[in-house]
Design brief:
Residues 6-138 form the Semialdehyde dehydrogenase NAD-binding domain. With 361 residues, the chain is an alpha/beta fold. It is 27% helix and 22% strand. The protein folds into two domains: 5-157 and 342-354, Rossmann fold; 159-335, Dihydrodipicolinate Reductase, domain 2, CATH 3.30.360. Strands 3-2-1-4-5-6 form a six-stranded parallel beta sheet, with helices on both faces.
Length: 361
């Protein structure tokens, strides 16, 4: 039997589920042993269930092709085969909340890509470089669920990854007002150009629910644990517009910031390049060596050239300059389905394993 932790993917046939499977191929700590999806896929091999809907640019890993898809609703049965699960199920918010807690109550940790539990007060929503201390709230969650090792942890929305780490790096200068516009790739909607042809040469100035998430979720990352729940920070105040653009992978943000303590451009760049966290200190398998890089070229970062920086786990920043209305403005770029989705969740799981929250059953 492998020494690796046995992993299940809930919602394995969807785009984020596929990204989990491709990222976990040959992972040094984790091995995908179980794939689960809706009843219509259950009973087929993974290869049969996905068929022509494989959306990754790399081939489907051989190790998963012949795995028989289980019904995600057979919670006890799925949970009995794994040490923990990644969740990327496509259901209503209430259904997701219920099924993720059901898995947790089988003493199976759930690391979720879904938004359903992002505002559950005792569920940690974590970017491991920013707020790994929020995993401490798990002990309070376990008391509520009546579990000893089962819990739910989540990662935040993909749209904030290109600017929340940057603002965190600048915390000591006290950013207090932020305007952000995000230009978001179509894979964020689980689509490719083949199945969304109307996005070719098009921009849609609306993504349902995205602006609220982009404004509020960073404040939860910067919050504190009080009385067993996470209390969001009050600042900086963020206002955001989210635009869908004809790009496959990569969310770009144009951001304006006001600071209470006025930094120089050189100080801001220094803070970005020096910024690191637990993943870098522990050299976790999926951690980017350099989390945030600053690019001096006037026309960078660009999606085509820069989205795969640090295997899609790093953030690229450029065009930092003083502004007439705000103090500074910049452009940020992150990979929305790697750092912003499955990769961010894998890094959370690695951090949870390193902290002793995820172990063999």
């Amino acid at each position: 039997m492998s020494e690796k932790l046995r992993v299940g993917i809930l919602g394995a046939t969807g785009m984020v589920g596929q990204r989990f499977i491709s990222l976990l191929e040959n992972h040094p700590w984790f091995e995908v042993v179980t794939v689960a999806a809706s009843a219509r896929s259950a009973g087929k091999t993974y290869e049969e269930a996905v068929g022509a809907r494989w959306k990754m640019t790399t081939p489907m890993p051989e190790a998963v092709k012949k795995l028989v898809v289980m019904n995600v609703a057979d919670v006890e049965e799925v949970a009995s085969t794994v040490d923990f699960v990644f969740s990327a199920v496509d259901m209503s918010k209430e259904e997701i909340k219920a099924i993720e807690e059901e898995y947790a109550k089988t003493e199976t940790p759930v690391v979720s890509n879904n938004s359903a539990h992002r505002w559950t007060p005792d569920v940690p929503m974590v970017v491991p470089e920013i707020n790994p201390q929020h995993f401490d709230v798990i002990e309070f969650q376990k008391k509520r669920l009546g579990t000893t090792r089962g819990f739910v942890a989540v990662k935040p929305n993909c749209s904030i990854q290109s600017y929340a780490p940057v603002l965190t790096a600048w915390k000591e200068f006290e950013p207090y007002e932020v305007v952000a516009t995000t230009y978001q790739a179509i894979s964020g909607a689980g689509k490719t150009f083949k199945d969304w042809p109307e996005m070719v040469e098009n921009i849609i100035p609306y993504i349902g629910g995205e602006e609220e998430k982009s404004e509020m979720e960073p404040l939860r990352l910067w919050g504190e644990i009080e009385d067993g729940v996470i209390v969001p920070a009050k600042e900086p105040v963020i206002t955001c517009q989210c635009v869908r653009v004809p790009v496959l992978n990569g969310h770009t943000a144009a951001v304006f910031v006001k600071f209470r303590k006025k930094p120089t451009k050189e100080q801001l760049i220094e803070k970005l390049t020096a910024f690191k966290g637990i993943p870098q200190e522990l050299e976790l398998p999926s951690a980017p060596k350099q989390f945030i890089r600053y690019m001096e070229e006037a026309d960078r970062p660009q999606v085509q050239a820069d989205v795969d920086y640090e295997n899609g786990m790093g953030v690229s920043v450029g065009r930092l300059r003083e502004d007439k209305v705000y103090d500074f403005k910049f452009i940020g770029l992150s990979h929305n389905t790697v750092r912003g989705a499955a990769g961010g969740a894998v890094l959370c799981a690695e951090t949870l394993k390193a902290k002793g929250y995820i172990t063999k059953k």
